[in-house]
Each structure stands twice: as C-alpha cells, then as structure tokens.
Amino acid sequence: MTMQDSLFSNDAPPLEPKRARGVQPAPVSDEDQALAAALSPHVHLGTSTWSYPGWQGLVWAGRHSEATLSRTGLPAYSAQPLLRAVGIDRGFYKPLAASEFQRHAEQVPRGFRFTVKAPSLVSDPLLRSEDGRGQQPNPLFLDPTAALQDFIAPAYEGLGASIGALVFQISPLPGSMLARMNEQFDRLHALLLALPKPPAGVLCVEVRDAAWLTRDLADLLRDTGATYCLGLHPKLPPLAEQLPLLRALWPGPMVARWNLNRLHGAYGYEEAEKKYGEFSEMLDPDPETRAELARVIRGTAGAGQDCFVTISNKAEGSAPLSVRALAQAVVHA
Question: Region Disordered: which residues (predicted)?
Fold first, then answer.
C-alpha cells in the first residue's frame, strides 16, 4: 500500500464537523417557537441592549466577551423569535451617525424594531460632570435644531423602517425648572412640532419627574402626533397610575421601558447590578407589574396598534427571562 493509499483509506477517521464561526444563537425551544407564533405581529418585545455574556444559553450558544457581543452579537440576538425589538441606549451618551444606525438595521430581520434614546445633549436639562453631577444649565435642552441634526435625521436615515420608538427621555429637572413647568411644557411642545414624522414607529417622551404627568402633557403629545413612553422606574408612580396618560392618547401605539425594579428605589441601579451578577436568573420577579403590562399590551395589539416594549436586566434580574415571562402573560392570560 502506498503512503497515499494509507492516508486516504476507508479506515481513516472522518473529519470533525466544521465549527460555526462568530456569535451563534442559542437553540430555540419548541415552547418559545410556539409562544412567538401566538404573539400578535404588533407586539415587539425585547431587551434594553444586547451585549451581556451572562446570557449564554438564553440568547447565545457560547461564551463571548461583551465587546464581541456589542460588535457582532445582534444577528444572533434577533434570531431569537421572542426578541423582536432591542434598545440602543449608548446614543444617550454620544450621538450616533446614520452609518452606525444603518449597520444595526442591516443585521436584523424584517419586522424587527429598535427603541432608541435621544442623546443627553438635548434631553438633559443640565450639563454634567463625569460623575453625573449637574454643573450648569444645558443651552441645548429640548433644542429642535440640535435634536434634528444629532438624533432625528441620523436615525431616520439609518434605521428607516426598523424604527420602533425614538425616545426623548427627559432627565430629572432641577428645582428651579420644576417651579416653572409651564415653560418646560412649552419647550417640549415646540420641539415636537418642529420634528418631521418618522418613516416608521413613533416619537415619544419618557420622563423622570411626576410633575410632567398631567393633562398638559397629553394635550401636547396629541397635538404633535407623539406619544407617552411608560417609564417603569421607581422615580415615577407605578404603571397603573401612568395609564391615564396613555388612555388620553387613545387610539395609538404603546411604548414602555421597564427600567428598574421598584424594590431598589430611585437610585438603585448600582445595587441591582451587584445583586443580579451575570443577569442569567430572574431573582426578583415582579408578577404584578408584568400582569398589568401584559393587559395593556393585549388591549393595544388587539386594536391593531403597535406595542414596543424593552426590558432591562435590572427589572427582574434577567431581561431575556423577563421577555419570555411577559410573552407568556400576554398569550396565556
């Protein structure tokens, strides 16, 4: 037998299967497939971002660094049938270019939607130091020109039909501005009137001060075609107390961001992060909030209106598990 014959004989062991390269999605269970199929196409549930290594087995098939997931994990994330939306929060710290938005949009399937926060450049009333302390008034707070240039135009161009909700999350107001809320309502009204309608999805406003939650806000949102984003955060009243605003805007889409479990208090992000570790377990279930949210989703989607809901790991401990539990509450009520 020649050397070549011995190398290629039938006794030679077969080659191992080729390993998949890059970030791969975790296998999808039959239960999740059925749950996704039962959800209305108007329901877009997702997490507040997608770069957590601890989601191995829930979203990712293997272990990857946060940097790798941030760069290349979105296609695997969007392959999970229950994850039909995701948040882009990093633009809050620095405006994103249209090309960055486009790169994200090109990595997801048709029908997937993004919830994007406006940069603090236009949504924070104060200019802040590196440790987050307000130093002086922000001259561009709710400025229409800056909002159009640094947020709206790039998002419209880059995301297009993938837009779910573009969110002006207004940071806490200093006492001097809270004492002059009429001025703040006028400023917000002027901003929203100046912005063109999105090619898809909706413009919306999320707040961190209960002083905004009045009929004045509902009137200006209706007048401008924008909507209110339910902010599930301890700085605001519970979900049930925010719903009158949404009812005042009916019929219309629903936007919700479930940011932080109320048990941690208004300033509990660091506490929650330490407690929840790798965000792989639901450690603090909140069935009451979930049931109320599911009820609103069912009613909104049942009337043919879109729902855009993103959930943070700090809501219950693991955002993908919260999405699954919320989907179950919507379908199996």
Answer: 1-31
Q: Would the pTM of this model clear 0.85, i.e. be above it?
A: yes
H or E stretch including 224? helix 215-224
Helix (H) or strand (E) segment spanning residue 144: helix 144-147
Closest to 108 measured CA to CA, from 55, 44, 151: 44
User: What does the domain layout of the chain look like in residue ranges?
Assistant: 24-331
pLDDT at 2: 52
- Whose tokens are 């993908």? That residue is 320
Cβ contacts of 87 within 8 Å, gap of 6 or more: 46, 47, 48, 49, 114, 115, 116, 117, 257, 310
Answer for the pair 38, 330: CB distance below 8 angstroms, yes or no. Answer: no
Assign residue 82 a region (left: φ > 0; alpha: ψ between -120 and 50; beta: otherwise): alpha
What percent of the chain has pLDDT above 90? 89
Structural tokens at position 150: 């640094």
Tokens found for residue 159: 């995301």
**24-331: CATH number:** 3.20.20.410
Nearest-angstrom CA–CA distance, 62 and 75: 14
Question: Mean per-residue pLDDT for 256-265?
Answer: 96
